[in-house]
Amino acid sequence: MNSKTFYLTAILLLNSLISLGQQVIGFWEITEVKMGSQTMTPVAKWTKINKDGTYQSGNGWLQNAEGTWTFDRKKSLFSPKETNGLIDEFGPFTVEFTDNGMNWLREEEGTIVTVTLKRINSLPKGPADEVVGLWNLISVTKAGMLPKLNDEVKGTQNIFIRWDRIYISRSSQGARETGYWHMHGHKPEITLLPHDKNGTAETWRIEITESVLSLTGISDSNKDEKIVYYRLHRFPK
Questions:
Q1: Angle at the Cα of 85 (from 80 to 86), degrees rounded to 5?
Q2: Structure pTM?
Q3: Which of 76, 118, 190, 217 could form a disulfide linkage to 225, CB 3.0–4.6 angstroms apart?
C-alpha cells in the first residue's frame, strides 16, 4: 500500500469513527429494556445526549437525571456518568446502531441487559402528565350493585388534579376534599392521599385518553369500583 492510499484509508476510517460518535447525539426515547428473559417497557423514559458532552434524562415531563458522557469510537462504547445520583457500577454500554435507532448492551450481575432507543422530537407524555387537569364525573359502578345512570351523577362531582401533586375534589353539595396524589413510577396506578387525617388513602388503576379518565379501584376500600370522568376546560358554574 503506497503512502497516498494509506492516507486516504486513514481519513475514511477516521471519518467513519467520528460519524459513529455523532450518531449517539440527539433526543431518544427508551422503548424497551431486556434483562435476560425478562422484558420491561419503561414509562415515557427519555434521554437527551448533547454535543457538549452532557446529557439529561427523565420520565415524561419530569427530568430526574443529568450528567456527562464519553464515546469510545474504536470500541463503540458509550459511558454516561451521572452527576446528581448514584455511581453506576456496571460500566459503559456497547452501542449497536439500527435502522430505527440504537441498542445499548452490557452485563449486569451476570445478566445481559439490552436497552432499545428510538429518536424522538419532543418529550413523551406519561400517565402522570396526562392525568393533570379538571375532570367531571360521568358514571360510578361497583360489582354487585346497580350502576348509577349517567344523568344521575353527571355534574355532581369533579376532581382537579394539579401539576403540584395536589388534588381537589368537589361534590354537588359543596363538600370539598383535598390531598396529595402520587403516580406509580412503572405502572398506570394513582394513589390519592387525603389531607384529612381521618381520610383513607386509595389506589386506582387508570385508563386515560385525551378526554376520558377511568379509575378502577384496587385498594381494599374501593375494590371493583369504577369511576369515569370526562375532561373539562373550565370550572362549572
A1: 85
A2: 0.80
A3: 217
